[in-house]
Structure prediction request, 1529 residues.
Amino acid sequence: MLRKRRRSDQIRSLRPRSVARKMIVCVSIVGHQNNPLFLHSFTEADDALKLHHVVHCSLDVIDERGSHVVPFAYEINNPKKTGSTLNETFLGLLYPTESYKVYGYLTNTKVKFILVTTDVDVRDADVRNVSALSLRLLLQYAFFFRRFHSAYVDAVSNPFHVPGKKINSRSFAERVSTIVKSFGLGGAV
Amino acid sequence: MADPSASYLGNTLIEEISPVVMVLRTPLVEDSCRKNGLSFVDALRPFSLFNDIDVPVRTASDQPYRLHKFKLRLHYASEIRQPDLEVSKEHLKKVVTQASDVDTSDLRSDPPQIDSLLKAAESESLSSWFQIFNKELIHIASFSEHEALDHPVACLLVVSSKDEKPINKFVELFDTNQLPSLLNDSVMDPKILKHYLLLHDNQDGTLEKASNILAEMRSTFGSNECRLLTINSAEDGSTDWQDNPWIPHKIDASISQHLGCLLNMDDINEMKNFMQDLASKQIIPHMEQKIRVLNQQVSATRKGFRNQIKNLWWRKGKDDAPETSSGQMYAFNSIESQMRVLGDYAFMLRDYELALSNYRLLSTDYKLDKAWKRYAGVQEMMGLAFFMLDQSKKDVEYCMENALSTYLKLGSSGQQNVTRCGLWWTEILKARDQYKEAAGVYFRISNEGPSLQAAVMLEQASYCYLLSNPPMLRKYGFHLVLAGNRYYISEQRKHAIRAYRSAISVYKGNAWSFINDHVHYHIGKWYSFIEIFDVALQHLLEVVACTHQSVATQELFLRDFLQTVQKLGKAFEVFRMQLPVINIPSLKVLFEDQRTYGSVGAVNIKESLWKCLEEDMIPLLPAARTNWLESQSKLPKKSKDSNICVAGEQIRVEIEFRNPLKIPISVSGASLICQLSAEPESVESEVVNQADNNVDGNSSATVFQNDSELIKLKRNWEQNAGSSFVLSEVDFSLGGSETTVIQFAVTPKVEGILNIVGVRWKLSDSVIGYHSFDSTLLKKKTVKGRRRGGQNAQSPLKFTVIKSLPKLECCIHHLPSKAYAGELHRLVLELKNRSKFPVKNMRMKISDPRFLNAGSLDDMKIEFPICLEKQINSQDSIMQPNVVQGSNGLLFSFPEILGDQLLGDCVIGETTFTWPLWLHTSTTGRISLYMSIYYEMENSSNDIRYRTLRTQYDLEVLPSLDMSVQVAPCPSRLQEFLVRMDVTNRSSSESFLLHQFSSVGYDWEISSLPPDGTTHPFQMLTAGQALSCFFKLKKCNNLETEGMPSSTTLRGSDVRLGPRDSDKALFDISRAPLANFHSYERLDQGKSIQGSSSVDFILISQQKQNASAASDPPRLFSHHSCHHRQESEATICKIVRRDRAVVIDFVDVSYDLIVMKFVSCNIINHNKSIRTTEPASILDNLTKKVKQIIEKGVHHGVAPGDLIVIHGIESGVFVGVEICFPLGVASSPRSSLSGIAEASTNIHISIYSKSSNPQPLQLHVYSPTTTYFSNLSNSYKMALAEQRVLLAREQTDGKGGCSGLDTSKDTNCLNNLRKQTWNPHITSSRSNFPRIHKQENSTT
Prediction:
């Protein structure tokens, strides 16, 4: 089943590559007990399970780092980049042959924001020109996460929200979609 | 790090990278060995590994060292080639399948926990078969041409002693045609070390012949190279080896019993010695020597600066040569091949430095030649050499990465080598505790190769994540899932299940429900594939109630679940199944002890309401109550905390079922599980024992043996067959996300203790769900819940069943659910006694008698509504105001004797008994009627003496007619009044026919205004229409009978409405039920005042019938309007006149008099003059009253809108004026006193009939105020000859002002008093003058 999906995803992931330079596949919020609070995928396919797996696995890395540092944004996954300069943020192949990149953001309350993207071209680019491009990208992601975070804060400030429960607010989902859309369009910060 | 050669990898390398010995043998040799169940190579294999030899070796540079551990790899010549891929795949599959057979023995046990997994991983017990598998993978890549590792170092020629011409055989064996391609294709040096072995089978004869042959061999081939080996020396075939040396080397262990059965200790020792000699005396020295030779050659041609320059130069020139990656261009005598051989030999002899230096040289050469496969192979060996030398990590990683990526680039031809190289690398990383990196490498190589291999690789990767520090559990789980998936693809279901099972623990308890569902679902499915259905269902059960999945997924899950259940072939029973979800706190128990319920609605009414209703009824029987309490205490103690129910009567339990899925589910055969036992004490223990027995003994029927709760429930269910009670079965279906309340019933048949234990249902006819009612949950509910507090709050599901009692059932016929306001209905209450025992002492209480009233049996005799009509011969309608007094207002006692029949007997057996009830819907809106019927048992048992039957009905009352009545004194006659009736049809569509208008009051008589005529020709009132009618109200008590003013009889008088020629009978308002309802209306509409001046009106109308509904009896309406007061019995018509406006200037005077003319007119018809007999006293009295009023006002502060009464008098004429101060004007007490006229003189006036008498009226104004006489009324008092004081009051519409100084000159006090008419709004104005009424009453 997974394999079939993988293949179809490969085909699909070929399509947006030419259209959008990077595409946010999925955004997710994970609570401090590593329980999923929010997960929204922006692909048409029924790949929720796969994205769940990807997000779930990336928690391992966050656990590993989160214990000693609160990073403002870091890159987690780049499978093909073994031994490259971004080795420190190397997570390992989260998913076979799938060129996802997973970015994370950790709040003070140990709530994790996880972003899964397919920015294939950028990856190739920042292998070549790491210092300039990746810095710009990181800033871009940091900006995204900050907006995402403020949306989350607003959502949980709702007096009817039960802390630690899933966020079912429709307005929050809409707001996240807007943020994601603006991220895709914005290109550069 | 520890010594690398002591690590697992070091051992593996020693074993795997070791000299290959090619074995050539005759068929007879093989035959001899077959007797032991072994091939020749297999027989020797255990002895080819030397753990404790001690061979001195010298390196190329004459450094001595010793080899302690050594291994020879024996292979037949036919095996020395690259293994066939298909064959090797099969081989791998066999390995995996075998492992699955071993490993899946515990498939039925619970999935492993993380802790145990961690422990197991640390002890590496998991990985035993992985090592075998990995070795097999490495073997697949062996005998490649691009490396010299597997090139045979020596050749062992074996000939049996039975062979004819053994010497010739030896020569024939080394026939080049049959030699492996490696030797023939000039990849390796054909000049190979040969060793000749003569095998002698002791069973075939004596050694002599063999010895001869050996001697011959020695002479032919040289003494050192020949050897004799004797086997099969054991007498019989029954040699049993304690630890058979061959078993570990055989893959299929099934025939292991007979392995080596003909070999005795001597044989084995001989074999051991032979192998050891072969290794230490032949092969190692040979290799050593070869290393020297090759080393010299290499250093001569390649070492040194000059050679390197030359090499570079020479290589460069070769760049143009056609590129052949196959490596065919390197012949065995080329320097590259020789270097490779040198390196490999050195590696085998553990001279890693030498090997490394050669590999280094080679790698540059190969790189320049672009011989990538060879390059990768050399890099691989370099990495291993670095590792064995314990060199820096970086070098190792660099080499391995190089090797791996180069192999990867080669594509399919390098596939096997990728795997091998990756495995080496992972082992290196593992040996250095870099588990995370090892996992990554595993993952990389998992992408190559078939899915089975990938699965094993992924699983190993997952264990690496588990072993990494800190354990990366999520990645572990993820890779296990991936591995399981691959296992499944390669049809290794047991392995797939194992992998997923291990992953469960990672996802368990987390909210990652999508993943969890995926894992559980697939495990369940795979279990059902391998036909372990019970475990499969356990897992499927986890996902079947998933609310978060999409509809399609839910359908899939449910379908698979049900299919699996069907495959199970028997009823599947689940305890606490989540489909549908049972909302335990919603549980309601409905039962009847002394309280019985007639309708469903009645059950849901609060107990307090019933208590309140029955309050009057039950205390009437204090004896019964105390008896009941006593009997309660007499009951066994056990039953004290339980409810009481009656045998044969239903106990109903309501539970809420919720469908968590978005797809509909169907539930059938849902029923309660109960237990009923005669002995209260034995219940609990009995059940427990049964459960215990069941656990110990045969519990084959249930799936979960350990679930004693389920067994308990099941046992209870099975006991139902005893049928001491009857259970209801409910079938229902739930739509997506639907919630329904299901009512279950149990009817105990015998006395005892009944316990409701749980509920049982069947889902889709295949799955049986059980759910027990947890008593702790219920307790909470009951305490705050609606069930009776007090004595039985402890256990709402435990009942004491007492013997059957009579029980009445009631129903009300003809009760409409919708009615119009004012509608009058005759209902029939039907009481049924289903038991044989009679009841007695029946009473009934109705919550609101205004709506519902008990009739009398006579009402039943005549058809409705004719029964209400006036009898022709009836007396002048004298109303009895309290007809219902006999039933004490609300309580109605059924008469004991009913005709000739005793009522108690009537409600006996299965007979019914009817009683009329009257319904009058007096208000609009929703009306709830509560009715409680009390009865006692004839043969009262100890437990319950009486019972009550409670019923409740809801009606919706729609608006119909709206009647309002205004009474005004008739301007022309003294004792007559005008009645204006405004009626509006407020219904939406109905039309009504006005029928009758009646007045009820003391001494009042109503008549239509044109005498003897119909009031209104248009009888019908359509929807929305309004109508006003005028009537004349006359006091029939004339002055002659005034001596007895307080008449006690209420008289009714009627006016027929409608066309003149209507012959419709009038309805009798003086009899029940109209009179009853009227009296209740009176009560409702206000406090009854026992005065002569109050009158009530009743409007009776009928609904306009459609032609279609003509058969129905006409619907009758009555509207009541009560307490119309007529306090002014005016005798005098009067007019106050004032000609001009008066301006009072308070500058000059302190007060002023305003003079008005008061014209009185006697309108009384008879000739009597009105006179005052004792005018002085009356006026004195009056003045006092006035003063009191004023003082009161001062005292309390006159509230805005209050009245101050002012009386003026002038020249013998007394006039009382009431001045109503408008809001806010009388702000200070002083000012309220300001406008007071004073009564000072007695007057005496006589006004003759029909004459008028103008009198001046004087008003004193004391102080300057601005007073608006906007609501000015004046009243006067007149004493009649009969000493009756009548107070008439007149309200002027005029707006007057008495302007003081500060108000300007503009006018006028009382300047526009116009002609006054009698105020038609007398009732409304009445409420404005409450104090006056009091005064008036006291004065009379």
Q: What stands out?
A: Chain B has a mean pLDDT of 68. Chain B touches chain A at residues 401, 436, 439-440, 443-444, 446-447, 451, 465, 470, 472-475, 477-478, 481-482, 485-486, 489, 510-512, 514-515, 518, 550 (CB under 8 Å). The first helix of chain B runs from residue 8 to 16. The first strand of chain B starts at residue 20 and ends at 25.
